[in-house]
Structure to design on (449 residues):
């Protein structure tokens, strides 16, 4: 369907953009790559009176890599992440997950900040942000603040961002050398919304045991969720076949997904366990090398 | 709103409302009807055009967002006379039936091979997974893309 009517502004600074959002009083929305908000407007799931395009605002696009970690500007596109050879080394879980985002053309426009603000429970980035303890930098009328990924997502397409706040960047803590990781998702066709997905990572100690385990799941609840029972089943164990089986069973047991036209609740429960099993098998093989 | 951008090498200026997608702007304002509009929510890929070198869905981009950009549509792929090597490969391999998806297929594959002239069959299949062909003629489309790679490898070689 054609888009509804709206006004459009493309301010040249963050402060002007915040002022426009503030004046919009909840009826104005920021526009980044537009790959989520434009389709939901076409469906009339959102009808903002004003779109504030962030394209002319400098400083939202860089990828900064330092000893402290990685900072990615909100307007960095999926393809910029996939094209960055360094990220494959210093934050490998991210590009592995981003390969699953939608299709080629969408990855050429869609942005990391836009995806986080959109907070689709089936999208990859929120689950990855949760697994990697990412911090979301935002700016609004009251100034700057940092939001932990775990505090950002409040429901389906809902976040703790106030209507005048704009995501500026995402920070990821430094990636330890001995970290195992993998991302897995299942969709009926490549690029479709995932029926379920998991992001997993853990550090390997000198005895080969899993430490600081993080497992998150997408498309299983209204928000991305940590799979705490699966994490507990893994923590301190050598990730052999038995440990992977235990984690996979724990994941299936702890989730309570809704069934829909695409997959029943029972199917999704089983799928989460299967995907975690696959992810952990690949993660373990990576550390064995 | 007044928008100025480049289409197929020519500078254009149009006056559109913000809700006008780039696809509708190309078709209705600039009469470049080679770009097809299918689903209007970013699923079918028929409206794919090339913006600053990247294949994008023109139904998921506002015309006002194209201000200052360089846009190439399917019309811009052909030389003055005849067909481009990719278009010729489509003809040779019967890679089109009803033709509705064809402009999106051509622009997508052109953008891909311009950047990755050595893309293998898996990569081509992955990339065109964002383009639906309701005639289901995918095999011949992939064959045409594979066949056209030589001309992109050649032109890349000429530039280097």
């Amino acid at each position: 369907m054609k888009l509804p009517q709206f006004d459009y502004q493309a301010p040249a600074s963050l402060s002007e953009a915040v002022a426009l959002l503030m004046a919009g009083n909840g009826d104005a929305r920021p526009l980044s790559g537009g790959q989520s908000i434009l389709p939901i407007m076409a469906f009339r799931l959102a009808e903002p009176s004003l779109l504030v395009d962030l394209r002319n605002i400098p400083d939202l696009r860089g990828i900064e890599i330092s000893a402290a970690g990685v900072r990615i500007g909100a307007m960095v596109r999926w393809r910029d992440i996939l094209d960055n050879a360094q990220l494959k080394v210093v934050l490998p879980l991210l590009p592995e997950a981003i390969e699953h985002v939608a299709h080629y053309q969408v990855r050429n426009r869609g942005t990391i900040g836009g995806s986080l603000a959109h907070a689709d429970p089936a999208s990859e980035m929120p689950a990855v942000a949760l697994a990697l303890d990412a911090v979301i930098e935002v700016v609004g009328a009251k100034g700057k603040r940092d939001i932990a990924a775990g505090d950002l997502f409040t429901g389906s397409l809902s976040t703790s961002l106030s209507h005048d706040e704009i995501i500026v960047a995402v920070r990821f803590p430094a990636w330890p050398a001995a970290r195992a990781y993998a991302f897995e998702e299942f969709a009926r066709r490549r690029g479709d919304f995932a029926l379920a997905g998991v992001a997993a990572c853990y550090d390997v100690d000198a005895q080969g045991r899993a430490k600081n385990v993080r497992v998150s799941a997408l498309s299983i609840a209204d928000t991305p969720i940590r799979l705490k029972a699966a994490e507990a089943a893994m923590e301190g164990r050598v990730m052999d076949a038995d440990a992977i089986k235990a984690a996979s069973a724990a994941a299936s047991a702890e989730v309570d997904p809704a069934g829909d036209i695409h997959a029943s609740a029972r199917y999704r429960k089983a799928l989460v366990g299967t995907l975690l099993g696959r992810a952990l098998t690949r993660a373990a093989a990576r550390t064995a090398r | 709103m007044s928008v100025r951008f480049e289409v197929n090498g020519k500078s254009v200026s149009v006056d559109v409302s913000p809700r006008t997608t780039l696809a509708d702007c190309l078709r209705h304002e600039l009469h470049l009807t080679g770009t097809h509009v299918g689903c209007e929510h970013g699923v079918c890929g028929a409206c794919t055009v090339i913006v600053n070198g990247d294949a994008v869905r023109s139904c998921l981009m506002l015309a006002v967002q194209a201000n200052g950009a360089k846009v190439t549509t399917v019309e811009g792929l052909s030389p003055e006379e005849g067909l481009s090597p990719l278009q010729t490969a489509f003809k040779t391999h019967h890679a089109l039936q009803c033709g509705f998806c064809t402009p999106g297929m051509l622009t997508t594959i052109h953008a891909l091979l311009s950047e990755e002239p050595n893309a293998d069959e898996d990569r081509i299949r992955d990339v065109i997974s964002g383009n639906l062909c309701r005639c289901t003629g995918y095999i011949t489309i992939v064959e045409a893309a594979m066949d056209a790679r030589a001309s992109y490898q050649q032109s890349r070689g000429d530039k280097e």
